[in-house]
Design a protein that fits this description.
Bound molecules: 2-acetamido-2-deoxy-beta-D-glucopyranose
Strand order of the largest sheet: 1-2-3-4-5-6-9-10
Number of strands: 12
Largest sheet: 8 strands, parallel, barrel
CATH topology of the largest domain: TIM Barrel
CATH class of the largest domain: Alpha Beta
Number of domains: 2
Oligomer: single chain
Shape: globular
């Protein structure tokens, strides 16, 4: 078996495969057809828009989605033939809904100047608006009216190529991130009639898509004891038969998509097409999170690219073509929340790739170099602390001082040990006191969702920061 000679034709084909994916990197003039990429910019250390366009091309991105109509980004994308999807920030939705003139003004200022040189595909009005309960009254009922006003403006200005949509997270469904069985999924009662039904009517009437943010990562992480990792990574590992439909599922993403489809059908709009506004896998995360690593991220996104290139659709919608946008172009250092939030990138902020990826899906999985072995696919069980982090940069003393004041202002006795005479007063520096305070705060409040972040000044560690008689507590240590 080991020594079967490779026939010359096969060698030629193999060379052809390599040549094909080698050339799309160099040949920037061709319109690529790979997965779309979300170009998120919540960071203070990422490359320029112009360099970002090169990096999008190098990964074989078929289109790009941006979170606002940033002029510098739109200028960099002009003339590149990369289709662009633009998002309307949540904050301006009420204004655009209240006044047709305001909506038209927005179109004139933010869209029209770029249309000559940029192919804008989708205008997405709001980002996961229905996940933010603080804007339930002000904004939820205004999404569709804002879309209608924008649509009228586009038509009046003879722009017919831009479709409108809005992006919704899986929490639009009663069952949330892991709706099993998919066929039983329904939209939340607080939005189904009031928002989703008119939205679906609008999407069908304009032949647009329901844009969902679908992250098998979260569904798997929250159910890591019952859902095999391979099932979330498109690597088999399990099958699931929906008792309601008899359909067999081979991966978690398909279950999530069909759940959204089932919920739409129950509102009488099963005909509306689906698009994936965000999906992906984190390449890193905190010690108390699991499965965020470069190996899993590479496997997920490579399999996704190869799969979507075949347009498989889903078990309930076989063959359905679906626009898909991977999250995200960069690791974004200013995203708050747990560590995974800052680790979705295809690239590090210095522009080097986290792992190789061909978003066109043409490069076969075996043609990639080996990946580092994952170390956090099961929960970490030891003690964890939260300390000041330099991330290789010079710290801003004012910011450290502000964070220290904030941490010490929470809870009772959070900073007693760093007061004069306290066992952690020495060394008497803002940095040492901040480390103590961050940990003290986080250990008290992590149970109720506090994260070890402090505006990118803190990070988790498994190395005990205690020194001398100064003890840093940990829930397990
Ligand atoms: C969806 O739109 C099509 C075409 O306009 C229309 O024929 C159909 O009745 C609509 N479906 C629903 C459920 O409204
Ligand atoms: C692993 O899954 C269990 C339930 O299956 C959940 O309670 C736990 O929080 C998960 N662990 C992580 C790190 O997400
Ligand atoms: C330092 O942090 C303060 C408070 O967050 C901020 O106002 C200031 O602009 C920062 N300075 C620099 C140089 O980044
Ligand atoms: C601090 O202590 C007071 C009095 O015991 C208590 O009422 C309060 O809830 C405590 N605050 C926190 C954040 O633990």
């Amino acid at each position: 078996m080991a020594s079967i000679p490779i026939p010359p034709l096969l060698l030629l084909l193999l060379f052809g495969v390599f040549a094909a994916f080698a050339c799309h990197v160099v040949d920037g003039s061709r319109t690529p057809h790979g997965l779309g990429v979300n170009y998120g910019r919540v960071a203070d250390d990422i490359p320029s828009p112009r360099r970002s366009v090169q990096l999008l091309r190098a990964a074989g991105a078929g289109s790009v989605k941006i979170y606002d109509a940033n002029p510098a980004v739109l200028r960099a994308l002009a003339g590149t033939r990369i289709p662009v999807s633009i998002m309307v920030p949540n904050e301006i939705i009420p204004d655009l809904a209240a006044s047709a003139a305001k909506a038209d003004e927005w179109v004139v200022q933010n869209l029209l100047p770029y249309l000559a040189k940029t192919r804008v595909k989708f205008l997405l009005v709001g980002n996961e608006v229905l996940s933010d309960r603080s804007i339930a009254t002000s904004t939820w009922p205004r999404i569709v009216p804002a879309m209608e006003n924008l649509h009228r403006s586009l038509r009046a200005r003879r722009v017919s190529s831009v479709k409108l949509g809005t992006t919704l997270a899986m929490d639009a469904l009663v069952s949330g991130a892991f709706p099993r069985p998919p066929s039983a999924a329904v939209f939340r009662a607080d939005i189904a009639e009031a928002v989703v039904r008119p939205l679906l009517r609008f999407l069908n009437g304009t032949n647009s898509y329901y844009f969902v943010d679908a992250y098998p990562y979260f569904a798997w992480a929250g159910n890591n004891e019952t859902v095999p990792l391979d099932y979330a990574l498109f690597q088999g590992g399990s099958r699931y038969v929906d008792p309601g439909t008899g359909l067999t599922y081979t991966n978690l993403l398909d279950e999530m998509l069909d759940a959204v489809g089932a919920a739409m059908s129950k509102l009488g709009h099963g005909e509306v097409r689906l698009a994936i506004a965000e999906t992906g896998w984190p390449n890193g995360g905190d010690y108390d999170q699991i499965g965020g690593n470069a190996r899993n991220a590479a496997v997920y996104n490579r399999n996704l690219a190869a799969r979507m290139a075949r347009n498989p659709g889903t078990p309930a919608r076989p063959g359905a073509k679906m626009p898909v946008f991977v999250f995200s172009l960069y690791n974004e250092n200013l995203k708050p929340g747990p560590g995974t939030e800052r680790h979705w990138g295809l690239y590090y902020p210095d522009g080097t790739e986290v792992y190789q990826i061909d978003l066109t899906g043409r490069r076969p999985l075996w043609a990639y170099p080996p990946l580092p072995a994952p170390e956090n696919n099961t929960p970490y069980k030891g003690p964890i602390w939260c300390v000041l982090a330099t991330h290789g940069r010079k710290l801003n003393e004012t910011a450290v001082g502000d964070a220290l004041t904030y941490a010490c202002g929470q809870g009772n006795g959070t900073c007693d040990a760093v007061q004069p005479g306290g066992e952690c007063f020495q060394p008497n520096t803002g940095e040492a006191h901040a480390s103590y305070a961050f940990n003290s705060y986080w250990q008290q409040f992590r149970k109720i969702g506090a994260t070890c972040y402090f505006n990118n000044l803190a990070e988790q560690t498994i190395k005990d920061p205690s020194h001398g008689s100064c003890k840093f507590h940990s829930s397990l240590g």
